Every structure is written in structure tokens, then in C-alpha cells.
Amino acid sequence: MDNKEELIKELIRSGILRSKKVIDAMLKVPRELFVPEELRKYAYLDTPLPIGYGQTISAPHMVALMTEALDPDRGDRILEVGTGSGYQAAILAEIVGPEGHVYTVEIIKELVEFARTNLMRAGYLDRVTIIHGDGSLGYEEAAPYDKIIVTAAAPRIPQPLIDQLKPGGRLVIPVGDFHIQYLTIVSKEVDGRVRYETSIPCIFVPLVGKYGVRASSGLT
């Protein structure tokens, strides 16, 4: 399948895409601008694609699942951990509109620059701030957030992310090890209590950082 409209129709038929705001965003954002040029012909296959440095852009169905689970709204302030190529940030930026903002943290310096170029070409850089840093720490400078999304698997949910979530907010994160991971939805009640809901099994690259997997990050 190499056609955007057909891909979206299939995701709707399968029940993965449900809400108009997410459907509209996935129709509008050009995924081909967020993959390496030599892979653009595969942009609308429902599969992850390599973007270099051992990282991938998630398959469209996983982007749809995570965005639906996050349930972003117009005007939201959102934190994304794991910018990658910038595609998920663009989807979120389209939904939150000019009234909202997306802060996205990437630990690999080269991908920070790749994502910045992609988001600029796609026209979303005015509502996305890209930070080079350890995303497992969140981004305290712009906290608190209405929603937080993590696009790498953590062995456990980083406490700083829960702390930086607004009461009434939602966090979506893959949790697990190299063998099995589950998409987990964290809801912070208005009274500060935290609820956890485990969703589907999934496979993500590991979250690198203080509250993730220890590795050489290239941070200076």
C-alpha cells in the first residue's frame, strides 16, 4: 500500500483510527517528509522505517494508536519524549493548533537537526520546540503539561514525567524490557491520584537516559 488515503481508510476500517481530529491530522501531515529521501516511496506502507542511529519512525498504525490513546485537544501543551524524525510531533502540532504547543526532547543530536529540518519543511516548527536532552527527565522548564507521550520503551514509568503532568492530564508510554512491552496509559486525577491502564503489546526502541536504559547519549 503506497497511497496515503488508502492507508488511512484501512486504519479506519480496522478500528485503529476513530476520531476525526486524528484522522484529519494523519491525512494532512506528509509522512514522506519525515523519512530519509531514499525511503520516501515506502512512506505509506504500514511499517516502521529506519531513520539512522539505530532509530525508526513508527509504523502509521502505532502512531494512530498512540495518538488516539493520548487524546490531544486543540490548545494543549504537550511533551513528547523521543523526537525521532519529528513525525509524531507534527501530528500533535496539527491537532493542538496555533493555540497549543509541542515540546519534544531527543537525546541523539543528529536526530534533533533532522527533525528540525523536517518540521520546518512541513510547516510546523512555529508550534514545536525541539530540545536536545535526556527525555526521561521530562522538560521542567515548560511544565506542567496537559499530555505527555513517550515514543521509546522504559523499564518503568519515569517519575519526573508523572510529576510534570497536570492534574487531569494523560501520559502514554510503552513500558517493558527487550522481550515484552505494553502500551501504558497513565491518568492523573484532579486530586493528584494516579491511575494506570495497560493496553496492547508493542515493540519500541529503548528509552535512553537516567530513568531509562543507560547508554552513551552524546550529550555534552
Task: List its salient traits.
9 strands, seven-stranded mixed β-sheet, alpha/beta, 27% helix, two-stranded antiparallel sheet, Rossmann fold, 220 residues
Secondary structure elements and pairings:
Blueprint: H1 4-13, H2 20-28, E1 49-52, E2 55-57, H3 60-70, E3 77-81, H4 87-96, E4 101-106, H5 109-122, E5 128-132, E6 145-150, H6 159-163, E7 165-176, E8 181-188, E9 194-202
Parallel strand pairs: 3-4, 3-6, 4-5, 6-7
Antiparallel strand pairs: 1-2, 7-8, 8-9
Helix pairs in contact: 2-4
Short description:
The chain is an alpha/beta fold and 220 residues long. The chain has helices at 4-13, 20-28, 60-70, 87-96, 109-122, 159-163; strands at 49-52, 55-57, 77-81, 101-106, 128-132, 145-150, 165-176, 181-188, 194-202. The chain is 27% helix and 26% strand.
Structural class: alpha/beta
Whole-angstrom Rg? 16 Å
In spatial order, strands of the major sheet run 5-4-3-6-7-8-9
Percentage beta strand: 25-35%
Helix-strand string: HHEEHEHEHEEHEEE
Please describe what this structure looks like:
- The chain is an alpha/beta fold and 220 residues long.
- The protein has a single domain, classed as 3-Layer(aba) Sandwich (Rossmann fold), CATH 3.40.50.150.
- The chain has 6 helices and 9 strands, in the order H-H-E-E-H-E-H-E-H-E-E-H-E-E-E.
- The strands form 2 sheets. A 7-stranded mixed β-sheet has the order 5-4-3-6-7-8-9. Strands 1-2 form a two-stranded antiparallel sheet.
- Helix 2 packs across helix 4.
- The radius of gyration is 16 Å and the shape is globular.
- The N and C termini lie far apart (42 Å).
